[in-house]
């Protein structure tokens, strides 16, 4: 019966705290891409370029033409819980993808990170680098506009995590999935995804900025394919302050896997059991058991009626009234599908 020895409590240093946070925020290269692209979107970018090499393990780079970071604020961007997006007074009043101030310090703690930025109106660009938690000085750099964040040797500081990564091919696929999902969330923004593993760069995905009123349809064609759009019906429904819009495929265009189901809450891509459950319920009786509906659905609501501060990767949300969200999806889709001639045999309560 060996009792653990008592040891003094001590405060971990920043590098250790950031590595721990990174464990939750950055699971794989694709999660780093998600954080960096979200930052670019939050900065009001109209074009975002994503480059990677070796499934993102060797290199990840996200370049945007957004408002940039001021020279004096570059060290702050790398410090934990430092953000320009909220003032901390109301965690239910969030209008940006980011708000935790954790992504950049986390990434800087587990790899070699550099941020080059030229703030809007500034006459030149500056750069700061951090290598596995050790930040360097702010230095003059060359960049015409916006921000370029580069991450090399991801997880060098956490070999355990490195070991759990899958093949370059699988990691690259996960990166492409994240980019396509965010591209769907922001049809007005142009995206290019380039694989720089080999001698010649290879364009993996490209979506041009869409400005027309049917921007979503345009973008859905690029992301989900012409077939999806040709077989989809527009959705527009409302319930108690929650609005549901987007495109949902007819049951005749179902998929063998649940990959074609994209859900957004206030433009944030979410993976949510409640919402996917509602989507399945809406198609109940219209689809064989092993088929999945394809859809790109957007719930828009007052930020106050949904809590996004649930999960470090911000992939989950909590509605103040989950029943309303569920009912909106089930009845909104049912009505649209019925109007298109696809009526369910049984009635399931909304
Ligand atoms: P958060 O996004 O939660 O604020 P991050 O660690 O991702 O936290 O970023 C910290 C801060 O750095 C942001 O609040 C923002 O001010 C700035 N920043 C990060 N990326 C960019 C970017 N691409 N363009 C402009 N500012 C950025
Ligand atoms: Mg962020």
UniProtKB/TrEMBL annotation:
GO MF: ATP binding; ATP hydrolysis activity; ATP-dependent DNA damage sensor activity; endonuclease activity; mismatched DNA binding
Keywords attached to this entry: DNA damage, DNA repair, Endonuclease, Hydrolase, Nuclease
Keyword field contains Hydrolase: yes
Lineage top rank: taxon: Bacteria
GO cellular component terms attached to this protein's record: mismatch repair complex
GO terms for biological process, alphabetical: mismatch repair
Keyword Oxidoreductase: no
Similarity-based family: Belongs to the DNA mismatch repair MutL/HexB family.
Protein's name according to its UniProt entry: DNA mismatch repair protein MutL
Taxonomic placement: Bacteria, Pseudomonadati, Pseudomonadota, Alphaproteobacteria, Rhodobacterales
Gene from which the chain derives: mutL
Covered range of the whole protein: 7 to 356 of 613
